[in-house]
Amino acid sequence: MPSAESKVWVGFSRFQVPTAIQREGVLLRGIEATVLLVLFRLANAGTPREPAVTVRVSIRRLTVLTGLADKSVRRALETLEANKFLTVRRARKEGGRLFGSNTYVLLHPETGKPLRAEAGNGVCHFNGVPYFPVPTDVVNGGILARLPLSQKSLYIALLIVTGRSQSLTFIATTPMLTKLARLSPKTFRSAVEGLELAGLIIREGRAGYTLCDPVTRERTKRHPQDSENPRNWTVEGKRALDYDTLTAQQWKLVIDACFRHPYIYTAQGWTATTTCPFHGSDGKATLSFNFENGCYKCHSSKCTAKGKLSRFVRELLRTSEQGTQEFIARAIGIELKFNRPTKDAIKTWRYFNDTHTLVKQVFLFSDGEITENANGQGKLLYHLPEVRASRTVLILRNEADCEQIEEMNLKDSDGRPVATTTGGYLTGWLPKFAAELGGKNVVIVYSSDRGGLGFYKQVADSLDECGIPHRRVNVPPEGTMSVAAIADQIGTDWLYDNGQNGSTEYGDITI
After folding, report:
1. Which of 101, 105, 57, 65 is nearest to 85 (CA)?
2. Residue 372: which residues within 8 A CB-CB, separation 6 or more?
3. Average pLDDT over the chain, rounded to whole?
């Protein structure tokens, strides 16, 4: 069992991919390798719903995460199934095409049996499958999706070598990499330069490679202070360092702010400057910018400078990664906000979507501050998968109140746990949530103070608009209620009598 995870990508959120993604020294075709890597990312992100490792995801979602065409994803899935990497439980099959969110059961690459799942354990490690670690930012940040297919193949191959060498800096010969990535020498050279310009690798000499931090696009490093870590700074609640999303005009503003040499600006493609600041002046216009792709490159044989424009700023100004981020933010007129490290939170509430994929987390700190991070899928109900399965749903004002109700172990009329849900501390209740509760027994739990009454009216009005009948539980402000008292207000026709008594109290809540 490789110990690479203890040495490679230390301090990064990462997931496990089986080394069987390459066989006999050759990677699966780039399309299949990319799809399989993304499926293992989704498998590691969710909470197991059954003993086997399953991923329920739509073709549309896979096209977004892989950056591949719809037809390519479908063919890749068929090839992976034929080669016993997975089996498919199809939602619907018609005319040979797959529809809806299919369920993919990942198989052990050696035995062909379904991989087993257990909460808190990496899929490969738990099943004794050799693996290499991959930083989650590669998939979550859309980095893999934005790469051309040849660069996807080479990058996955480099990730494999990184795991094998147990170091982010390693020696790899061109023949070995071209064979592993299944690329011709010409395509390989183009893919290497593409990854260099993307800031994902640094090539040193003919065979030296370093894999960079996929977010900062720099060599990985530890940050003594939380405030020095660029990952702890955000813009409008989103990660501030997604340089790939900056426009050509924004990059031009950044370069104009830090680079004083005159240069010839063209609306598209590469823009040549008069001199390169990274090697001795030879009076030639060797340095080029590509504002559309956010890259720079010196074409002189004396200089190897190339990469993301963020690296150009960092090296030109000789500043830190955080200093680079702050400079770029000022240049394009955006405001950075320090995001407290989640490791300091005293409570974490996790939001999962219909496929049991983690899409949002809400963090509570000891001083009462609340923050959240999300992957951009929009606002959704807390405990959404449980809401789908339960007949009776209790709506409360925040996640802390939901926890207290969960401890009572209430059951619906079919004996299943009552689902508790809320819009969340930060999002509040949204009218669209009501439409998702059709056919449920809906109970609004609120306090009789001013804020609680307002919350009750907001939820009740949205349910009434959708024609959804509901009941209510009125909790006295700063009071407690026993399980029996709550069950009495809900109605025994909506609950299952599981022998609970009135000794359990509904603790202090803030609704």
Report:
1. 105
2. 237, 360, 361, 362, 363, 424, 425, 426
3. 83
> pLDDT digit string (tens) for 20-75?
999 888 999 999 999 999 999 998 866 666 788 888 888 999 999 999 999 999 99
CA distance 253 to 259: 10
Residues 483, 486, 490, 492, Cα dihedral to 10°: 30
Count of CB atoms within 10 A of residue 100's CB?
A: 13
Q: Is 162 helix (H, G, I), strand (E, B) or coil?
A: helix
User: How is residue 169 written in tokens?
Assistant: 């800096």
Q: How far is the C-alpha of 420 from the C-alpha of 473, rounded, in Å?
A: 13
For residues 344 and 329, the answer to whether their CB atoms sit within 8 Å is: no
DSSP 29: P
Contacts of 498 (CB under 8 A, 6+ apart): 409, 411, 415
> For the whole prediction, is pTM greater than 0.85?
no
Q: For residue 441, is it left (φ>0), alpha (ψ between -120 and 50) or beta?
A: beta
Overall residue count recorded for the chain in this entry: 511
User: What does the pLDDT look like over 119-143, one tens digit per residue?
Assistant: 778 889 889 999 999 999 899 888 9
Burial 339-359 (b: 16+ CB within 10 A, else e): beeeeebeeebebbbebbbbb
Whose tokens are 């600041």? That residue is: 277
DSSP type of residue 68: -
Domains annotated on the chain, with CATH: 4-211 (no CATH), 232-338 (3.90.580.10), 344-506 (3.40.1360.10)
Q: Are 468 and 437 in contact (CB under 8 A)?
A: yes
Q: Kindly state the tokens that stand for 244.
A: 């790939």
Provide the β-strand partners of residue 235: 238
Contact, 103 vs 54, CB < 8 A? yes
Residue type, 45: A
Half-sphere exposure of 110 (CA within 13 A, CB side): 8
pLDDT 10s digits, 317-355: 998 888 888 898 889 888 777 767 777 889 998 888 887
CB–CB of 359/351 below 8 Å?
Answer: yes
DSSP per residue, 370-414? EEEEE-SS----TTHHHHHH-SEEEE-SSHHHHHHHHTTT-BBTT
Which stretches of 318-366 are DSSP H helices?
321-332
End-to-end CA distance of the chain: 50
**What are the start-end ranges of the E strands in 83-211?**
86-89, 92-94, 97-99, 101-106, 131-135, 169-171, 201-204, 208-211
Task: Centre a 10 Å sphere on the Cβ of residue 260 and count the other Cβ atoms it contains.
Answer: 7
